[in-house]
Amino acid sequence: MQGSDRLPEMDLITAFIAVAETQSFTAAGRRLGRDPTVVSRRFQTLETMLGVRLAERTTRRLILTEAGRLYHERLGPLVRDLKSAQREVAALADGQPQGHLRLALPASFGRMWMSRILADFLKAHPLVTAEVEYANRYVDLVAEGFDLAVRLGVLADNRLIARKLCHRRRVLCASPAYLAQYGEPRHVDDLAHHACLRFSSSSQPDAWSFATQGGGVRSVPVSGPYVADDGEALAEAAVAGLGIINATDWLVGRELASGALVPVLSAFPLIDEGAVYLVLPSRSGLPSKTRAFADCVVEALRSPPWRIEA
Predict the structure, then answer these.
(1) I need a surface site. Which of 173, 257, 286, 304 has the fewest CB within 10 A?
(2) Chosen CATH of 170-264 out of 3.10.129.10, 3.40.190.10, 3.90.76.10, 3.40.50.720
(3) Coil, strand or helix: which one is 118?
(4) How many CA atoms lie within 13 Å of 230's alpha carbon, on the beta-carbon side?
(5) In DSSP terms, which residues pair with 302 in a beta bridge?
(6) What fold does the segment set 10-94 form as a domain?
(7) Contact 196/208 with Cβ under 8 angstroms?
(8) Residue 136 confidence class, pLDDT cut points 50, 70, 90
């Protein structure tokens, strides 16, 4: 069978639909803005490709054959669906934000600071739905079909489009009750005599690194009664008076603002690389839903809500 598996080009299909609906090469040419001879050649090319006559022509009339009527009946709805799909996709790119948004957010940071941003965004854009993975793994945005991610620390994959939202800061802090009972450390060496709450997933959970005045790094051994892989759990332990925590400002910002935790050793800056980043799979061709949410996040974190100034 000639050309049975080969799909015709769109200009051939467009010409056929116009001819079938106007029953005239001249009228079809006017509809398409093409010379009637161009429309006629495309119609004939399609017949050759399909290996079947689609219309009977006379000097005065054009009548679809049985094959032509069948082809038009099957093809017409498909073309209308295609045009509708094109309009819908164009609306996703340029119109009101709509569609399904897949996000990858860090577990604790996402729950604490992104959930409200997302909720406000969804209320403002009722045509958008969202699916969120709260996890501390680095997802493959393209392979796993995510529209946007927020990442903390240092970005290892420079193939992605990343925008720094804000710096993060590290702070040592403890509850007033702990400091009243055990005293406040005055120097990093004093940490040897204090209960230190340690994050087991850090590269060196048993040592905290400080910047020296000469631009170097001093690593101080620490120990204590509690080590965990969850920052929120360690922060709760610090509020309960269990010890001193080495935390990012976004993790303990609310506790510092309320006075449940207070900074210690502020004159000795901790070493911390990285920041808070918004990550996209591509810079161009983003749907309006993704652009709108990215803009929302950038604006919300322009002045980090967890940050208090000493």
Answers:
(1) 257
(2) 3.40.190.10
(3) helix
(4) 8
(5) none
(6) Arc Repressor Mutant, subunit A (1.10.10)
(7) yes
(8) confident
Q: Does 310 score more than 70 pLDDT?
A: no
Superfamily of domain 99-167+274-300: Periplasmic binding protein-like II (3.40.190.10)
DSSP state of 193: G
Q: Is the pLDDT of residue 162 over 70?
A: yes
User: Which candidate, 265, 306, 282, places its Cα nearest to that of 152?
Assistant: 306
Q: Is the pLDDT assigned to residue 9 strictly greater than 90?
A: no
Helix (H, G, I), strand (E, B) or coil at 124: helix
Q: Which of 232, 170, 222 is nearest to 198 (CA)?
A: 222
For the segment 76-101, what is each residue's pLDDT rounded down to a tens digit? Answer: 778 777 776 666 566 555 567 888 99
Helix, strand, coil tally for the chain in percent (to 5): 45, 20, 35
CA dihedral 85, 87, 90, 94 (to 10 degrees): -140
CA separation for the pair 10, 131 (Å, rounded): 36
Q: Give the β-pairing of 244-248 and 196-199.
A: parallel
pLDDT digit string, tens, across residues 226-275: 999 999 999 999 999 999 999 999 999 999 999 999 999 999 999 887 78
- List, for residues 19-60, the tens digit of each pLDDT value: 998 889 999 998 888 999 999 999 999 999 888 999 998 877
How wide is the angle at C-alpha 140 spanned by C-alphas 139 and 142, nearest 5°? 140
